[in-house]
């Protein structure tokens, strides 16, 4: 893996030397359906690159990761592949002012979701291909200059097995010789080119607006077609196009718009223009909640926003990744709230997406939104909660700071001024200064070029009559930023509801800001800083407000305010300021009254984490029992057939721990038990079976029986996860060997095996692997692709061995491996920090015992 890296300096030097006029890429994928393992190992890739020398120098390199190169020629001069190709680069010299490079290579099919991924559907034996390149895996499929600022138009031609259809970024058709030929693209970056090929189920529609017609397509594997609700995908797509055309004043520039839902995908989705790819888990095989549909809509709109933010206008280098990802993350919620049925999407954003950002921003690896990205390994790790969710949160703050109209006008000018080009931070800031009249440089310095999260705490004084004499907001944190924030005052109504009776917006600056507009108001029962979630901060409470939440959180009527309070209490728990058992108590008291299903699902996840990681070991068994009892109680109280009932059923299954719990789960599976309205479909069956496997009540045979009911790719992943989750030393040894000592599993099955291996109830069983982990990870990092290495290093860190000894072992490894790959060290540092946080939270919880 280290030989596959590319530094920022190398990319800048190459961009100064040349510009690219175009690519012609010819792929022969007929080997994908070969009869032998060797036949399906590689495919032929022929690339012609036309480029000009625009700077000083006569030598450079082309990126290609391939098992072998058949031939290389530069301007008609043959180069010896054995001399110029080192496995990841082709060295070329003797450049002319105008150049034609031709590379004929054998490239490898992938099982890791990187490059040209090949998947065999176990249900019907059909083979499916798709590409995934971000940030730099196009070089696994064709030779190229793999950096975002060397944009060029592309022409793809693909020969595929008989009966297949092939898609790419541009419109395509099959010629008389059976070759699929695609229209030349607009100038785009390598990482957003795409090929999808196979016997996919394909549905079509169109979007029409005035003189503009955009052909729409949506596809999935044939075996998933019966579950594919393409009509809803098209509905959200059309609503998104309406919004973007209304507000961006720049028509969608890439012709057709296909959306492919593909197997074993590493990401949520990828914004390839004209050919967006999604993980197929967004096709729901059973009943799911509206939160799942909202999540899918958010991703569809996120990727559509990239057509402008990222594809039309692209960052120069990965330092400014936020110029695409932060904007797309923000626009996903923005458009969802304003153009679709998911009008409460900002509630989900406040409670879910920002939780990801708060965690990332408190790790030792935290970084400014505009990060220092030295190389591709840095770039891979910076697709994180800061670049996405914090960046989106800061953009929401920007809209409050500069104004919605100024923000959207800035976007319109940005697209028109930089269409098909590459930009840096300063390019956008200068335009926003034009449209808002605000000093964007000072704003950017505070919000984009520094790291860390502030906490905002109300400080309130009252007179003898109980009226506010002064309400100030106290800001803490390394960088005291300017916040445009609202402060809400809440009190109990006559019928016992907590409702807002006063609100003021203010510019919060420095360590202490007085909100003069609230002086003279009656004493509130709750002071909520950052009401309406305008800024990015951790919310703290005064003593009286915290007491109100402990006793009455469920009485808050506004769903966004309630979500903010849930998130704030969770941050207090993670920070070791609120005992984990107290958070569990509040959750069990009020989660049953939570109306927003997405918030409820987050509260469920947090309570499980509170018991597994932040509660003292002595209380875990009691805490687990309370969760299971509470889950079963709310399951029985939930409206039959409702999404709340389904959510509580999954929570109960995930927390079940007693013989009575297991008997009920077994009864629901075999039909001898019934809960009115609960439809035990196949996906729920796997959820109910999971705790039985973890606790030794479902053996290999029973798990195999379930697979026979669901002999699909999804069923296989469930089976692999459950097999690895069984409480047996031999099982754990086998799972460890499959993931760490072998590379035969696909990316999806590696993920499933790790998920099964790591079980909170099996701490003692997996304790011996802590030492093995630290002995293996450097070798594993060197030998595996970066995606698989990241999954294993993060997933198998011995965080469940929550002791000072494990912390010391992590510290010892870091000390002894100061020269290890920076990306590897970052992953270990992050996991070590999570462990240290858990130990601090346990110390807080111990004081409450």
Subunit organisation of the chains: single chain
Count of individual helical segments: 28
Distance between the termini: 48 Å
How large is the share of residues in beta strands? 15-25%
What low-confidence regions span 5 or more consecutive residues with pLDDT below 50?
A: none
Round the Cα radius of gyration to an integer and report it.
Answer: 27 Å
Q: Using DSSP, what is the number of strands? A: 28
SS content category: alpha+beta
The chain-level mean pLDDT equals: 96
Specify the biggest β-sheet.
12 strands, mixed
- Principal-axes shape call: globular
| Helix fraction by DSSP (H/I, runs of at least 4) | 40-55%
Précis, in short:
With 849 residues, the protein is of the alpha+beta class.
What are the key terms here?
single chain, 849 residues, alpha+beta, 12-stranded mixed sheet, 5-stranded mixed sheet, 28 helices, globular
Q: How would you describe this protein?
A:
With 849 residues, the protein is α+β, with helices and mostly antiparallel strands. Helix content is 44%, strand content 20%. The chain has 28 helices and 28 strands. Strands 1, 2, 4, 5, 7, 8, 9, 10, 11, 12, 13 and 14 form a 12-stranded mixed beta sheet that branches. Strands 15-16-17-19-18 form a 5-stranded mixed beta sheet, with helices on one face. A 4-stranded mixed beta sheet has the order 26-23-22-28. Strand 12 and strand 13 form a beta hairpin. Helix 4 crosses helix 5 and helix 21 (713-724) packs parallel to helix 23. The model has no long low-confidence stretch (mean pLDDT 96).
């Amino acid at each position: 893996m280290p030989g596959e890296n590319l530094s920022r300096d190398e990319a800048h030097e190459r961009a100064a030397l040349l510009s690219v006029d175009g690519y012609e890429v010819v792929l022969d994928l007929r080997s994908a359906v070969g009869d032998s393992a060797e036949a399906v190992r590689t495919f032929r890739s022929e690339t012609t690159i036309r480029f000009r020398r625009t700077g000083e120098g006569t030598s450079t390199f082309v990126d290609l990761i391939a098992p072998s190169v058949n031939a290389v020629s530069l301007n008609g001069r043959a180069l010896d592949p054995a001399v110029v190709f080192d496995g990841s680069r082709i060295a070329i010299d003797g450049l002319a002012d105008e150049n034609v490079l031709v590379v004929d290579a054998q490239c490898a099919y992938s099982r890791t979701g990187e490059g040209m991924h090949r998947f065999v559907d176990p249900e019907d034996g059909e083979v499916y291909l798709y590409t995934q390149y971000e940030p730099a895996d196009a070089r696994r499929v064709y030779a190229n200059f793999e950096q975002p600022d060397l944009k060029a138009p592309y022409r793809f031609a693909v020969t595929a097995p008989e009966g297949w259809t092939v898609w790419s970024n541009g419109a395509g058709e099959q010629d008389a010789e059976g070759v699929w030929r695609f229209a030349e693209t607009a100038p785009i970056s390598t990482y957003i080119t795409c090929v999808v090929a196979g016997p996919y189920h394909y549905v079509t529609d169109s979007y029409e607006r005035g003189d503009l017609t955009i052909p729409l397509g949506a596809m999935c594997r044939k075996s998933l077609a019966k579950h594919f609700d393409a009509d809803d995908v098209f509905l959200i797509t059309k609503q998104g196009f309406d919004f973007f055309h209304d507000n961006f004043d720049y028509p969608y520039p890439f012709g057709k718009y296909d959306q492919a839902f593909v197997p074993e995908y590493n990401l949520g989705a990828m914004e390839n223009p004209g050919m967006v790819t999604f993980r197929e888990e967004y096709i729901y095989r059973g009943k799911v909640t509206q939160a799942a549909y909202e999540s899918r809509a958010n991703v569809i709109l996120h990727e559509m926003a990239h057509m402008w933010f990222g594809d039309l206008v692209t960052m120069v280098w990965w330092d400014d990744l936020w110029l695409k990802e932060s904007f797309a993350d923000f626009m996903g919620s923005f458009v969802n709230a304003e153009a679709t049925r998911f009008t409460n999407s900002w509630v989900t954003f406040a409670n879910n997406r920002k939780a990801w950002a708060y965690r990332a921003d408190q790790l030792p690896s935290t970084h400014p939104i505009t990060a220092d990205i030295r190389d591709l390994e840095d770039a891979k790790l910076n697709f994180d909660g800061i670049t996405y969710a914090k960046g989106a949160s800061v953009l929401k703050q920007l809209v409050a700071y500069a104004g919605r109209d100024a923000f959207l006008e800035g976007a319109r000018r940005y697209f028109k001024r930089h269409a098909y080009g590459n930009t840096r931070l300063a390019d956008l800031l200068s335009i926003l200064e034009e449209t808002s009249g605000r000093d964007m440089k000072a704003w950017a310095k505070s919000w984009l070029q520094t790291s860390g999260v502030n906490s905002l705490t109300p400080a309130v004084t009252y007179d003898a009559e109980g009226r506010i004499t002064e309400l100030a907001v106290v800001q803490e944190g390394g960088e005291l930023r300017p916040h445009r924030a609202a402060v809400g005052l809440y009190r109990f109504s006559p019928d016992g509801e907590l409702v807002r009776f006063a609100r003021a917006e203010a510019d919060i600056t420095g360590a202490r800001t007085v909100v003069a507009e609230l002086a003279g108001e009656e004493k509130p029962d709750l002071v909520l800083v950052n009401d309406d979630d305008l800024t990015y901060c951790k919310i703290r409470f005064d003593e009286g407000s915290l007491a109100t939440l402990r006793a009455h959180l469920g009485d808050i009527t506004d769903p966004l305010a309630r979500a903010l309070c849930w998130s704030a209490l969770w941050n207090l728990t993670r920070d070791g300021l609120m005992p984990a058992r107290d958070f569990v108590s509040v959750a069990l008291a009020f989660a049953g009254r939570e109306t927003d299903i997405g918030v409820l699902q987050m509260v469920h996840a947090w309570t499980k984490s509170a018991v597994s990681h932040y509660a003292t070991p002595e209380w875990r068994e009691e805490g687990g029992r309370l969760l299971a009892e509470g889950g079963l109680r709310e399951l029985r109280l939930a409206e039959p057939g409702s999404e709340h009932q389904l959510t509580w059923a999954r929570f109960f299954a995930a927390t079940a721990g007693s013989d009575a719990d297991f008997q009920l789960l077994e009864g629901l599976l075999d039909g001898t038990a019934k809960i009115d309205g609960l439809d035990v479909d196949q996906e729920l069956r796997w959820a109910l079976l999971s705790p039985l496997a973890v606790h030794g009540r479902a053996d290999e045979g029973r798990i195999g029986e379930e697979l026979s009911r669901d002999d699909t790719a999804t069923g296989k992943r469930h089976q692999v996860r459950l097999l690895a989750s069984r409480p047996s030393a031999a099982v754990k040894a086998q799972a460890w060997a499959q993931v760490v000592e072998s590379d035969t599993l696909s990316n999806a099955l590696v993920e499933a095996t790790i998920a099964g291996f790591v079980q909170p109830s099996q701490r003692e069983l997996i304790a011996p692997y802590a030492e093995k982990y630290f002995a293996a990870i450097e070798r594993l990092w060197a030998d595996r692709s970066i995606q698989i290495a990241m999954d294993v290093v993060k997933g198998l860190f011995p965080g469940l061995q929550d002791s000072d000894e494990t912390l010391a072992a992590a510290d010892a490894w870091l000390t002894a491996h100061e020269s290890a790959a920076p990306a590897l060290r970052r992953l270990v540092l992050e996991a070590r920090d999570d462990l240290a946080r858990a130990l601090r939270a346990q110390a807080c919880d111990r004081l409450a015992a």
